[in-house]
Amino acid sequence: MKRALVAPDKFRGTALASEISFAMADVLDRAGYQVGLFPMSDGGEGLLEVFGGSNRSAVVTSADGRRIIAPYRLDGQTAVIEMAEAAGLTLAGGAANNDPLYATTKGVGELIKAAIFAGAKKVIVGCGGSASTDGGLGAIEELEPVVRLKGIELVVAADVEIRFSEAAREFAAQKGATPAQVALLTQRLEALENHYFQRFGVDISSLEGAGAAGGLAGGLAAIGGHIVPGFEVAAEFNGLYEALEGASLIVTGEGFLDSHSFLGKVVGRVVSLALEHGVQYLVVVGDCDPQVKENRRDRSIIFSLVEIVGEEQAYRATLESVRITLESALKLHGLGSL
Q1: DSSP code of 172?
Q2: In a 3-state reduction of DSSP, which class is residue 156?
Q3: Is the pLDDT of residue 263 over 80?
Q4: pTM of the entire structure?
Q5: Considering the domain boundaries, does residue 186 fall inside one?
Q6: Same structural domain for residues 256 and 181?
Q7: Buried/exposed 35-59: b ≥16 CB within 10 Å, e otherwise
Q8: Residue 238 lies in a domain
Q9: Is the N or the C terminus of the chain less surrounded, counting Cβ atoms within 10 Å?
């Protein structure tokens, strides 16, 4: 029996990665495949789910200064944190309600500290979905004196590949920043690079991924954190790399395909792995930027729920729409026995 793998990211706002995985697996099972499920995350929202969900919580400061309860996971001496649970844009009420100049990562520092006090010796911080562009300053100030991190392995799971000073130019507008505010935030980040070098002796200016979560990744790197692609953290944990051997098909996807999807995000990483291992792949997304799809040589394997079932059904009945869309993709490419 042929083996197929499903390795989607979440469809933000409509379905978890695990829910999308089960919907895809249902179709592939009926098509005659032996299916392996690997719900994924790029280090942003959904990383906790990959590791089994939260089992602890702490009261921390949100990006807009409120006191909130933030979940995290502690297994033995390993903690998993999503920065978005403390300083996420969704928690701040979206871009329209966010204050991009004052949004803070203070709560992320509080959450890291809580995990360490609970016994963690290794802390994995998922960097994605942020409201802030403070370069991690709020978190670092909360963790001072950083000597308390001695003996702690701090893994910074980045969801993008941009450098520290690029964070505002690339993503601050999505967090509600005006062009003038983007320029000011960029100046702040450039000043912080120098401050971190003077304070901690670490040059983060050329670190790939340091701009993740509004520069939080770079800030944590300055105090000893190790930046790694969030996708790798998830894939190593759930065994995706090993599962690729002998697979004949892999299906991935996300809520919206855009130019960033192939720059460190789940879809781009899965496609690269498939090409590396010579595995047939399909991409099923909620919707996509038509220009991005048109510019792809592999555009014939990209399928959008909105294109197949329409926008209303894609949002109202996402999981059923995933099933319909994947079934159409398999039939079009003559894959399986539907």
Answers
A1: G
A2: strand
A3: no
A4: 0.90
A5: yes
A6: no
A7: bbbbbbbbbbbbbbbbbeebebebe
A8: no
A9: N
Q: Which CATH number goes with the domain that contains 199?
A: 3.90.1510.10
- Do residue 183 and residue 284 come from a single domain? no
Q: What is the pLDDT of residue 160?
A: 86
How far, in Å, are 5, 239, 261, 305, 329 from residue 323 at the CA level?
A: 15, 25, 22, 10, 10
| Residue 66 contacts residue 103 (beta carbons within 8 Å) | no
Residues 272, 232: Cα–Cα separation, whole Å: 13
- The arithmetic mean of pLDDT across residues 295-316, rounded, is 92
In the prediction, which pLDDT does 154 show? 97
Please report whether residue 283 resides in a domain: yes
Identify whether residues 60 and 30 lie together within a single domain. Answer: no
Other C-beta atoms lying within 10 Å of the C-beta of residue 278: 9
**Residue 58 bridge partners (DSSP):** 70
Indicate whether 80 pLDDT > 90: yes
pLDDT in tens, 91-133: 999 999 999 999 999 999 999 999 999 999 999 999 989 999 9
- The total of structural domains in the chain comes to 2
* Confidence (pLDDT) at 13: 85
Q: How high is the pLDDT of residue 161?
A: 87
Strands (E), 43-147: 56-61, 67-75, 78-82, 122-127
**Strands, E assignment, 24-64:** 34-37, 56-61
Cβ 71 vs Cβ 100: under 8 Å: no
Per the domain annotation, does 282 fall within a domain?
A: yes
pLDDT-derived band at 316, boundaries 50, 70, 90: very high
Q: Which residues are registered as beta bridge partners of 73?
A: 80
Residue 274 in tokens: 């498939």
* CATH label of the domain that carries residue 279: 3.40.50.10350
Same domain, 114 and 152: yes
The residue behind tokens 């006191």 is 67
Whether the bond into 39 is cis, omega within 30 of 0: no
- What are 250's two structure tokens? 């892999």
Is the pLDDT at 188 greater than 90, yes or no? yes
Based on its alpha-carbon atoms, the radius of gyration of the chain, rounded to whole angstroms, reads 20
- Residues 258, 131 share a domain: no
